[in-house]
Amino acid sequence: MTHPRALKPGDRVAIVSPASPIVPENLEPGLAKLRAWGLEPVLMPHALDQDFYLAGTDAGRAQDLMDAFLDPQFAAVICSRGGYGCARLMPHLDLDALAQSGKLFVGFSDVTTLHLALNRRGLITFHAPMLLTWVKERPSWVEESWRQALMGGDPLQVGAPAARTVVSGCAEGLLTGGCLCLLTDSLATPDALDARGRLVLIEDVDENPHRVDAMLTHLMLSGALSEAAGLVIGEMTGTDSRADATIGSKPWREIVIERLGPLGLPMVIDFPMGHAEAMLSIPLGVRARLDADAGTLTLLESPCAASSPV
């Protein structure tokens, strides 16, 4: 795997919107944090475009991504937000060139699609807060985890709460995964989830309980999780409040445990990541150790290469 270079003060960072649109005021809190660390964020030309639920045209969003990754003036590429639209970019991207650039890449939610593709091509990426994340107040360790991810530290050792044990045991493997609906959507595509020997992260937001059941069932029936090493379940944020009264419901945690528990893999739930109110920045493609009894995830290698002196 290619380890991206850690950032240092003075680095220019490209801000892209590969999925849904964002308004300028929702960028400001995150931009302020980057500037406070001595970084220079630069909005790519189409970052503020809007075409209904997309941040402009597929061609424009794809061009921003290509330029951000391939322009040597940028040391990292950070997404403004998720939403929907990354999958539409795949025919327009030279994914091999993006991965070979070795740039530090940050995002989550719909960006899961890009993580799967770039990880498959050997680039370590970060399932981590985006610019929109910082519109809301977060615990201090969330910001510290983000800073460590960008600047070359250990983003998991920042005092985040432990997860809850579902299936005891320990497992090691490369980290993969992300947003459940995008993992499911990846099946039967060239960049489908590859969970073999890996620790799989799963979380989502605003899905009905029966849809969480359906997507987990789909992953299992496809065999996508049959050779996984362990499961790290975050939060299905907002799911319990979206119960369909016409068919009845069940709490999402019970659904997850019922569906995935029988796999017998070391497994935790409520790991702080993704759309939860408080989330860690997690490198994907890095080897890690899951201790399901302790509810912890530990990196076994540094996700970033050392940054050269200023």
How does this model look, in words?
The protein folds into two domains: 12-151, Rossmann fold; 164-299, LD-carboxypeptidase A C-terminal domain-like (Glucose Oxidase, domain 1, 3-Layer(bba) Sandwich). With 310 residues, the chain is of the alpha/beta class. The chain has a seven-stranded mixed sheet with strand order 6-10-9-8-7-12-13. The protein starts with 11 loop residues before the first strand and ends in an 11-residue tail after the last strand. The radius of gyration is 18 Å and the shape is globular. Strand 8, helix 8 (209-222) and strand 9 (230-237) form a beta-alpha-beta unit. Helix 7 (180-186) packs parallel to helix 8 and helix 8 (209-222) runs parallel beside helix 9 (252-260). It is built from nine helices and 13 strands. Helices cover 27% and strands 21% of the residues.
Estimated radius of gyration: 18 Å
Number of strands: 13
User: Which residues form runs of ≥5 with pLDDT under 50?
Assistant: none
In the CATH scheme, the class of the largest domain would be Alpha Beta
- CATH fold-level topology of the largest domain: Rossmann fold
- Determine the number of helices (DSSP H or I, runs of at least 4 residues): 9
Mind telling me which CATH architecture of the largest domain this is? 3-Layer(aba) Sandwich
- Main β sheet profile: 7 strands, mixed
